[in-house]
Request: fold
Amino acid sequence: MAIVLLGAMVIGAVAAGVVWVAQEGHPAGDRVVGALAAGGATFIGVATLAFVIGSFLTS
Reply:
């Protein structure tokens, strides 16, 4: 479980970095909100998908 969460965290951080760079030229507050939202949503999605696939394969 720790490996899944660590992997989801890394993927979420990469997604946040991509959104941060993509919003070049926007005010800093908007960039922070967008990057955190994208990173958090990616983390939740990847972790949930990984747990569902894991439970499907083990059952």
The radius of gyration is 14 Å. The helical segments are 2-22, 28-58.
